[in-house]
UniProtKB/TrEMBL annotation:
Domain (N-acetyltransferase) ranges: 3-139
Domain of life assignment: Bacteria
Record-linked Gene3D superfamilies: 3.40.630.30
CDD domains, per the entry: NAT_SF
Organism: Paenibacillus shirakamiensis
Organism classification: Bacteria, Bacillati, Bacillota, Bacilli, Bacillales
InterPro entries recorded: Acyl_CoA_acyltransferase, GNAT_dom
Signal sequence bounds: none
Protein known as: Ribosomal protein S18 acetylase RimI-like enzyme
């Protein structure tokens, strides 16, 4: 189950997970922390395994019940154990967005593709770096009589 940690974004254990998501870039970490602190459209959740925070997922709420994943990270000692997938799937279950999107580079596009996101190449904003839009359309609830 995901735990809302937005109000704890400045706490060391949560900040260290967010730091992984921004590749230890201090400016990016400060910017992300600021957004989660002041903007109600930005939400931050974490996954806990016993006493350890294992991962974090942050998103921005867009129009039409669309969530744009802004940050996702799993602590280095918990990688390759399915926690990244769990973060995305738990977000879908707990928050029930109509759509999830993520703008990513080549390094992580296969992660999203493996979960069932549709991947489309984007025009490059940075020469030499491929960018992709990954989209997951949630299935509408079925009415069972």
């Amino acid at each position: 189950m995901l735990i809302d940690v937005k109000e704890y974004v400045n706490r060391a254990d949560i900040a260290s997970l967010l730091e992984v998501a921004v590749y230890s870039d201090e400016e990016e970490l400060a910017s992300a922390t600021h957004l989660y602190t002041i903007d109600s459209a930005y939400q931050l959740y974490a996954l806990r395994q016993e006493e350890d925070w294992v991962g974090v997922i942050g998103y921005k709420l867009l129009e039409d019940d669309t969530f744009q994943i802004e940050h996702i990270a799993v602590s280095p000692e918990h990688r390759d154990q399915g926690y990244g997938r769990a973060l995305v799937l738990e977000l879908l279950i707990d928050q029930s967005p109509q759509r999830l999107i993520a703008k990513v580079d080549e390094e992580v596009v296969d992660f999203y593709r493996s979960i069932g996101f549709v991947v489309v190449s984007l025009p490059s904003e940075i020469p030499g770096i491929e960018q992709y839009l990954c989209t997951y359309e949630a299935e509408p609830p079925t009415d069972e009589a």
